[in-house]
Amino acid sequence: MCGIVGYIGERPAAPVLLDGLSKLEYRGYDSAGMAVYDGEKINFAKATGRLKVLSELTHDGETMPGSAGIGHTRWATHGAPTDSNAHPHFNKERTIAVVHNGIIENYVKLKKKLTDKGYEFCSETDTEVVAHLLDYYYTGEPLETVAKIMHRVEGSYALGIIFMDHPDVIYSVRKDSPLIVGRGKDGNLIASDVPAVLKYTREVCFIENEEIAKLSRDGIEFFNVDGDLIEKDFKTIEWDINAAEKGGYEHFMLKEMYEQPKTVRDTMNPRIKDGQIIIDELGMTEEEIRAIRKIHIIACGSAYHTGVTSKYIFEGLARIPVEVDVASEFRYRNPILEEGALVIIISQSGETADSLAALREAKAQGVTTLGIVNVVGSSIAREADKIMYTWAGPEIAVATTKAYSAQLIAQYLLAMKFAQVKGRLSEDGLSEMLRDLKRLPDQIELLLNNKGRIQKFANRYIAAKDVFFIGRGIDYAISLEGSLKLKEISYIHSEAYAAGELKHGTISLIEDGTLVAAVATQDELFKKTVSNIVEVRTRGAFVMAVTNEGNTEIEKNADYVIYIPQTNKYFTNSLAIIPLQLFSYYVSVGKGCDVDKPRNLAKSVTVE
Ligand code: M6R
Q1: Catalytic (active site) residue 2
Q2: Which of 302, 485, 607 to mutate to test the pocket of ligand 1 (most atoms within 8 A of CB)?
Q3: Span from the CA of 352 to the centroid of ligand 1 (angstroms)
Q4: pLDDT tens digits, residue range 137-182?
Q5: pLDDT tier at 378 (50, 70, 90 boundaries)?
Q6: Alpha-carbon span 33 to 44, nearest angstrom
Q7: Active site residue 300
């Protein structure tokens, strides 16, 4: 997610912008830039990569004199992370500079309109349309112009804007993207988040949707979308900088777990239009979809677990055979990729070495490859023939939560689309599934709000030595992820087993009090899983069960039950994983582990 900072005051602006942007680095970014008015013109600097590069380029801001400016860290969405796509963006004469956080959903339409009117674009971004649109509507009166474009632009935005002919003012406006205003002793600021301004002030005002802020050196005014002056209150921030970066959450992992409802909506909503699934970016015709004979899903870690889940969905719903491989195994097993195969590579970072190598292997064999990737412009995103982005935003905690949830949604949509095209999913069936899909964000929120109960339970297991996760079908896939979450952040040994496989050896490890987490969300397998629960319980296991609301009979056989709301059988992973994430998180916190940066692990595994 991008970060924006703006400053107007007595100090040189550029060092303030660089400092503010450094406090927003946690949001994730791949390029940075700033624009500063020097008394005559607006100067700018942009750099791909870390903020350090921009600092070096501008000698810590010294080469950009002036005391009014806007800065930006960009996390690529539209267009690769390059200098030309980095913000700020300008109108042709460079008299209007804009930084933006959010997504302009109707940018294609606006770009076409502006191009028809002779405007030329020098980036691939959605943001650049805002700069040209401001130019198009500019009447010499900035407030009126800003209000006007708010009626034309759809989507989410927080904007920082400088007009060269009104150099003593910075304008800012937001809709569905965060924006705060800071009132300082020697200048005023805008920012995407509080940490960026804390060095200069603790007096902060949170701008609401469709409100405009007008900042000058000695004052701040707020307006509504009609241009009427409005009153707003400032608050004094009491938190320290670390807490502020995490939005008040104790850890990034917890914050990211709480972002899951939004992530699910962001990944799903743009691809559902008028009751149909539209995945335009795939660029696959119905004929090409019908020609798919087999799907190979290849990934690592949690991304692999989402693939194990979607195997059941592609096969059950679309009746397309699926093989799922761990990427590090796939590349060395001399895989056979037959004609009509589609290879799907799933990766949050888009840089995982083994997944990238598997992609290259598949391409070398001449089959179509599709990347399901979170980081725009990453290697897998660039090299795959087709790309479907998960819109999870940057994930900071090493243990994935929100990217995992987004990967599931992307695969649900694909499987449903393929099933529909192949004539395996009727219009009624699709509507029913879409209804359940759209309910997931609220249901996830409900489960997250149950954290207190899970925390209490987790505290009893901080000294556990071994934990087993069991399930059948999709519940086995959920168990794999539940187990990985626990071991990676709490360092407790855990294993996931297909519930029916336990008695072929592993059951000998069950002792008095061993915790077994049993996932039982699949109606047709419910009784079978309950039998496996009974097997471990009679050998002394303490059973925590995760099942659907209504399955109260499980209480006879399990010691502790977590219910998930009713949903389509193919979507239960999205719900059942939430209590398992919370459980792992609270065990890790209880043990005093480094939740966000567990030992020996890296966020992006770029070596074999
Ligand atoms: O960036 P990728 O999705 O390719 O990463 C794959 C795995 O390294 C990743 O999912 C890992 O297992 C997570 N740390 C699990 O939480």
Answers
A1: yes
A2: 302
A3: 8
A4: 999 999 999 999 999 999 889 999 999 999 999 999 999 888 999 9
A5: confident
A6: 7
A7: no
